[in-house]
Each structure stands twice: as structure tokens, then as C-alpha cells.
Design brief:
Layout (H helix, E strand, L loop, with lengths): L7 E3 L2 E3 L3 E3 L16 H9 L5 E7 L17 H16 L4 E5 L18 E2 L8 E2 L6 E2 L4 E2 L2 H20 L4 E6 L4 H6 L14 H4 L1 H14 L4 E5 L13 H12 L6 E5 L6 H10 L3 E5 L13 H4 L5 E4 L1 H5 L3 H6 L9 H6 L12
Parallel strand pairs: 3-4, 3-14, 4-5, 5-10, 6-9, 10-11, 11-12, 12-13, 13-14
Antiparallel strand pairs: 1-2, 7-8
Helix pairs in contact: 1-2, 3-6, 7-8
């Protein structure tokens, strides 16, 4: 029987176990350069016993930033700073992928330099507020991307993927979940376009498919992963055709042969559909299972044993328990998930936002 503590080959990258650290927004980058700090290197190195670390969301282009103090991968300075992080993880035997996250309409001009404005597939503002240096503010109506700008956004993901490999990452994960730009194109509620990028399912999946193809062409499919969150309403996302949408997406990217698919499960009732996605996808499958208000814990390791998934992604427990794989082996003891650790800042005064 396969267990969570068995190694696995991830399209040529050997992972020591099947426990993944889920991507979690940390907001610890330098405010001016958007570079990861020394604390970021320490944070990820402490968690190198994970089979695979998936980094916090990293903006591929300047206008892709949606939260304060988040890092980028679009400048030489950022590449050099991330190299210190990846070196620290590799020195401890870990493997780390960079999550490329373009926030799209989720953001605010106050977070962007040079007069930039959040962009999106359509002029549809998300309901809700975003953190800014001056406090929470309403999301703004995004500037609609032209056809040429959509292609530039695709190229931005590919360029950032190349930068990630140069910075020492073992690969990249394309963030197609949680209401950010890729999912904004997928979802009918945020994509009202009538051109080749909107309308029927085959058009709304086009942006995600083109990003996957561009990244895989740039760094190799074996270094490319994709995260999706079918039916997830986070960031005011509305999908009217979830079942058809994501099966069509997987069929379209299947010829690319990417390394893995990472699925964020919205509710326990969604499991039959998740299993359909698992059957549809030929590569390695990573599941971030729905656990309600409780964190994903050792009980979810059974999903590997029964074949539901190849790896399980853990979020909140990794914040308080850097050595989580060892603690999962004995089902604890776990450090408490107190509010200071999860939401308001840590003992060093750095702001921490919830896992997204």
C-alpha cells in the first residue's frame, strides 16, 4: 500500500514524500523592490521536509500584484533574491515550485506603481475589499484587457516561469484558482467578452490553456503545474457551468503533458467530481481537500492510501508546524493555530494574511 511517506517521481523530480505545502500568502516582501527577504528564505528552509513546497503567490508582472508586500518574479533583483530562498530549501534537501499568481481584478491602484490599474477580462468589479497600506478598500472596476494585452499577459507568465527556473525553482505552478486572473477568464460571472477569449466554454478556457502551453514551452512540461478550484466562489467568482468547464480544460491541456494538477476542493460533496478530474488527468494529482473550518490534518493522508490522490496539500498546519511531515507521521502533537500566527502578524512583526 502506498503511503504519504513514500517517495514519488514528479515528472523527473524526485520528492521525498507525498506531503505538499500549499501556497499561502505571507506578505513579507520588501515594499519597494517586491523581493523576498531573509525571513522568507528562513521560512521556506524550515519547511523543506515537505515532499514539495509550493510558494506563496508570486506576481509574474507588476500589474499582477493584488496584496501588499507580495513578491514578484519580473526583475533581475527579484530573481537574485529568490535564488537565496531556493538555495536555502535545496541545502536542506527540499523541492520548491513557484506559484505564479496574476491577481487580475483583485487588487487596487494603491498597491501598484507608475499609475498602473488592476486589469481583467471584463469591466466587472469584484464585491468586497482589499488590504492596502491605508487599510481595507473596495475592489475597483478593472481595466479591460485588449486582445493584444491578453497575449502579453500570457507572455508574462512564460517570462516569469523562465525567471523562476533561473532563480533555482524546481518548477512553477500556474495559479488558476481562487478568483484570480486565470479563473476570472474561466468564469462566466467575470468574463463577459464576446471575442475569442469569452463566451462559450471553449473560448473561456482559452486563456488558461494558452498560459499552460506558453509556460510549458518555456521551461518544459515536466516543470509545469496548474492549480484549479472548481466551483470556488472566493473573490466573488460565479461559475454557471463548472462540470463542463473544467473537464474541457483538462482535455485541452492533456496533450501538453504537464507535471501535475493541483485541485482545491470546495466542499466535501464535490468529491465525486474531483475523482472525475483525477481520472481525466494523466499526470500527478495533488489534492487540497475540503475540511471545513478545521485544518487539513493526518486524517487526510488516507486519501493517498485509497488512491484518491497522489499528494495531499497542507496549509495552515504548516504555518505553526514547520516540521509537519514528522508530526503527521505520529498525528501530533501540533503547535496551536493561534490568531497571531494566522492572521495578524507574527512574533517578528510581519503581516500574515490567511491562506488563500
Amino acid at each position: 500500500m502506498t503511503t504519504a511517506f513514500d517517495p514519488i517521481d514528479l515528472a523527473g523530480t524526485r520528492l521525498a514524500n507525498r506531503i505538499a505545502m500549499a501556497p499561502m500568502t505571507r506578505s513579507r516582501a520588501d515594499a519597494g523592490s517586491r523581493t523576498p527577504t531573509a525571513l522568507v528564505a528562513e521560512y521556506y528552509a524550515q519547511r523543506a521536509s515537505a515532499g514539495l513546497i509550493i510558494s506563496e503567490g508570486v506576481q509574474p508582472v507588476p500589474e499582477g500584484q493584488g496584496y501588499p508586500f507580495t513578491p514578484g518574479l519580473h526583475s533581475r533583483e527579484q530573481i537574485a533574491a529568490w535564488r537565496r530562498v531556493t538555495d536555502a530549501v535545496h541545502e536542506r534537501g527540499g523541492r520548491i515550485f513557484a506559484q505564479l499568481m496574476h491577481s487580475g481584478r483583485i487588487g487596487h491602484p494603491d498597491l501598484l506603481d507608475g499609475g498602473l490599474h488592476p486589469v481583467g477580462p471584463s469591466a466587472v468589479a469584484a464585491a468586497g475589499k482589499v488590504f492596502t497600506p491605508e487599510g481595507p478598500k473596495d475592489f475597483v472596476t478593472p481595466r479591460v484587457l485588449t486582445g493584444d494585452e491578453v497575449r502579453e499577459a500570457v507572455a508574462g507568465f512564460a517570462s516569469a516561469a523562465r525567471n523562476a527556473v533561473e532563480a533555482g525553482f524546481d518548477g512553477v505552478e500556474i495559479h488558476g484558482a481562487n478568483g484570480y486572473l486565470v479563473q476570472q477568464f474561466l468564469a462566466s460571472g467575470s468574463n463577459h467578452r464576446t471575442d475569442e477569449w469569452g463566451g462559450p466554454v471553449e473560448n473561456r478556457i482559452r486563456f488558461a490553456v494558452e498560459v499552460v502551453r506558453a509556460v510549458a514551452a518555456e521551461i518544459g512540461p515536466e516543470r509545469t503545474g496548474l492549480r484549479i478550484s472548481p466551483a470556488n466562489t472566493f473573490n466573488d467568482i460565479t461559475e454557471t457551468d463548472t462540470d463542463e468547464l473544467y473537464l474541457a480544460l483538462l482535455d485541452a491541456i492533456e496533450p501538453v503533458g504537464i507535471a501535475y494538477l493541483h485541485v482545491l476542493e470546495s466542499t466535501p460533496e464535490q468529491r465525486p467530481y474531483v475523482l472525475d478530474l483525477r481520472k481525466r488527468f494523466a499526470g500527478t494529482f495533488i489534492l487540497n481537500p475540503a475540511t471545513g473550518e478545521a485544518p487539513t490534518d493526518a486524517a487526510s493522508l488516507a486519501l493517498i492510501e485509497d488512491g484518491t490522490t497522489d499528494l495531499v496539500a497542507f496549509g495552515r498546519l504548516f504555518i505553526a508546524n514547520p516540521d509537519l511531515p514528522a508530526r503527521l507521521r505520529t498525528d501530533g502533537p501540533y503547535n496551536p493555530l493561534d490568531g497571531a500566527t494566522m492572521y495578524g502578524g507574527d512574533q517578528r512583526g510581519y503581516v500574515d494574511y490567511p491562506a488563500l
